[in-house]
Amino acid sequence: MENALEQIRLTLHDAGCTEGEIQKALLIYQAEGAAALLRQLRKCRCNRMEELHESQRRVDRLDYLIRQTQKNHLIGG
């Protein structure tokens, strides 16, 4: 089980999870098993997707401003 815990820890770290999220996932796995861990992992994934979507919205806003600036000042790309 120790090897499984270390693999989970490393993978969550590589996925960008916070230390708090990692600790919570490990505790859930130890106390409640794989099914509970899967539910927690899906929550973490959902959070990462929301962060991704927010980043995309920010990039879209910058793209809009770039296009508007180019259009208003007749500047090429």
How would you explain this protein's 3D organization?
By secondary structure, the chain is mainly alpha-helical. It has one domain (2-73). Helices cover 87% and strands 0% of the residues. The chain has helices at residues 2-14, 19-32, 34-73. The protein is rod-shaped and about 65 Å long. The mean pLDDT is 93.
Short structural summary:
This protein is mainly alpha-helical and 77 residues long. It has helices at residues 2-14, 19-32, 34-73.
SSE order and pairing:
Elements: H1 2-14, H2 19-32, H3 34-73
Helix pairs in contact: 1-2, 2-3
Cα(first) to Cα(last) distance is 55 Å
Domains counted in the coordinates: how many? 1
Mean pLDDT: 93
Tally of separate helices:
3
Please provide the count of β strands: 0
Rg is 20 Å
As a percent range, the share of strand residues is under 5%
- What's the helix-strand series? HHH
Q: Structural class of the secondary structure composition?
A: mainly alpha
Sheet having the most strands? none
What is the approximate shape?
A: rod-shaped
Measured as a percent range, the helix fraction is over 70%
Poorly predicted ranges (pLDDT <50, ≥5 residues)? none
